């Protein structure tokens, strides 16, 4: 009986871990990279990183700032040919690119 309980718990733990990790990765790959006409400048020299993003595209763009070691930014819409939006985050988070959302 104890062996069955341990086996069931091991199975539940594996399902929980797999489900928690697979979902964000699948969403990220489905979103894809932001268009190359979305320009940015990154200053990552200090403890707080700063990112400025400009939309040089002919159309409006929805994008998200992807960060390693932390949560991604909220989905941001920028009008075509618009001025910049500024994003900041603290170390140990690291800029990992811009993705569509």
For the structure shown, list the relevant keywords:
101 residues, alpha+beta, three-stranded antiparallel beta sheet, 1 helix
Give a written overview of the molecule.
By secondary structure, the protein is of the alpha+beta class. 30% of the residues lie in helices and 41% in strands. The chain contains one helix and six strands; from the N terminus they run αββββββ. It has one helix spanning 2-31; strands at 38-43, 48-55, 61-68, 76-78, 82-90, 94-100. The strands form two sheets. The protein has a three-stranded antiparallel β-sheet, with no helix packed on it. Strands 4-3-6 form a three-stranded antiparallel β-sheet, with no helix packed on it. Strand 3 (61-68) and strand 4 (76-78) form a beta hairpin. The longest helix is centred in the N-terminal third of the chain and has 30 residues, at 2-31. The chain is globular. The relative contact order is 0.21. The model is unreliable at 1-30 (pLDDT under 50).
